[in-house]
Design goal:
Layout: E1 12-13, H1 15-19, H2 24-28, H3 57-71, E2 75-78, H4 83-96, E3 101-106, H5 116-127, E4 132-136, H6 157-169, E5 174-176, H7 181-185, H8 192-197, H9 201-214, H10 218-228, H11 233-244, H12 261-279, H13 285-294, E6 308-310, H14 316-323, H15 338-341, H16 344-347, H17 366-373, H18 380-384, H19 397-415, E7 419-420
Parallel strand pairs: 1-7, 2-3, 2-5, 3-4, 5-6
């Protein structure tokens, strides 16, 4: 996607399109409904149909990586130190060798105080010592790059820009990410009914233990899902949304300007009707949850044009092959760690010799990522544009975080000569 300003076109922001970014489905689904400046920007609700019979997902992933390697001599991989990015790096190195590959990481501090760069470096060396390791160093004085397409919803844009620039400076012409790994391989909620129906009792006991540790609500939602799965599909879907996505039932915050409240609420209802057709074909809470984890897929308005960015897990053939797996196969009770059991599809992409080097818990960066999006002071641009009304804060973390992201984007748009009209 070209993220540069389009020459010769009026720099206009449609206030209605901008207001739709505050619809609950868009906030909770972590996507933007449309481009406020009129770029083509359509969230994808279903993977495209394949033009040939698909093999299993590891083979399709390898085909995708081979096709990328055929176009690019030097390839960078954004290496966080987690399972997803490590899987991309490992499969790529198996195919092309480590000499052509650069692992790019940033030294973030996770929520437990550990350095992500040290974790990534150790794992990269275990995968192939020939892979060059580059540690990006964001410059605090350099603002995150801006995109005229839409506000950026990528986590920590400032760090992401530094990663992409470091990849470009390494001589790479493409950078690969592990984006999508959690969504297409992670075990969804509400698998209990599937496992019980298949009489997979050991798997069910392990799954129940893991999910109850993750959330006490699972102790009653999982049994409810097993009962609800037997209901007619329309009723089953309605109960799922009422229980699993209670946040969608909350009212639009009063800080959204009165003019836009009916517009946003109408769009939200139409969105639900739009996805109802897809959900009608899904036969259980687990299938519904797995779909909601992946879709809608909205284009990431990444603001760096210096290097091509590819997401192999989200390539159509890989996505379709991964989603074709039985949903209960996403959980494997035979692995020794809960993190691995819930990401069985990713762990199986590694050679057995690497298992001892893999992380056994998921690194999280909530504190760092939230700090990168928080805005000091009032959202003055959104208030002046009539999108929000005073005080501009809803005292709701998700809504206010979205307001901070959109406010930052709008301020820069106005500085560049755009008008809201």
């Amino acid at each position: 996607m070209n993220t540069r300003d389009r020459e010769g076109e009026a720099r206009r922001i449609d206030p209605e399109r901008l207001a739709l970014w505050f619809a609950w489905p868009a906030i909770l689904g972590e996507f933007g409904p449309s481009s406020p400046t009129g770029y083509q920007y359509d969230p994808v609700l279903e993977p495209p149909q394949p033009d040939r019979p698909l093999d299993d997902y590891p083979a399709e992933l390898d085909r995708e990586l081979v096709s990328i390697a055929a176009e690019h001599e030097r390839i960078a991989v954004l290496m966080s130190g987690g399972l997803d990015s490590a899987a991309i790096l490992h499969r790529l190195v198996r195919l092309v060798g480590g000499e052509r590959v650069v692992a790019v990481t940033a030294d973030l501090t996770d929520d437990r105080g550990a350095s992500s760069a040290s974790v990534a470096a150790k794992l990269t060396a275990a995968i192939d010592p020939a892979v060059e390791i580059v540690v990006a160093e964001p410059d605090p004085a350099t603002p995150a790059r801006w995109s005229p397409v839409a506000p950026r919803l990528d986590a920590a844009p400032h760090h992401n820009d530094a990663l992409l620039l470091a990849a470009a400076r390494s001589g790479s012409t493409v950078v690969l990410t592990g984006n999508g790994g959690d969504e297409i391989f992670g075990a969804p909620r509400f698998l209990s009914g599937h496992l019980a129906a298949a009489k997979q009792w050991r798997k069910l006991l392990s799954y129940a233990a893991d999910t109850s540790l993750y959330s006490l609500e699972a102790t009653w939602k999982e049994p409810l899902s097993a009962v609800s799965d037997r209901l007619p599909r329309r009723l089953m879907t309605a109960v799922y949304h009422r229980v699993a996505w209670q946040e969608l039932n909350r009212p639009t915050p009063a800080v959204l300007a009165e003019r836009w409240r009916p517009v946003v609420e109408t769009w939200s209802r139409e969105w639900h009707h739009r996805i109802a057709r897809i959900e009608a074909a899904l036969g259980s809470w687990a299938h519904l949850d797995a779909w909601c984890n992946v879709f809608p897929l909205a284009p990431l308005a990444v603001g760096v044009d210096d290097i091509e960015v590819r997401h192999p897990f989200l390539a159509p053939r890989v996505l379709r092959a991964a989603l074709a797996r039985p949903v209960s196969d996403r959980y494997d009770h035979t692995w020794p760690y809960a993190y691995w059991r819930a990401k069985a599809g990713v762990v199986s992409l590694f050679d057995p010799s690497l298992l001892a080097s893999l992380p056994t818990v998921k690194q999280t960066f909530r504190t760092t990522l939230l700090a990168g999006h928080r805005l000091d002071g009032e959202p003055t641009a959104l208030l002046d544009a009539g999108i929000l009304r005073a005080p501009g804060r809803a005292n709701d973390e998700l809504f206010d975080l979205r307001a901070s992201v959109v406010e930052s984007w709008l301020r820069e748009a106005l500085r560049r000569g755009y008008t809201v009209a």
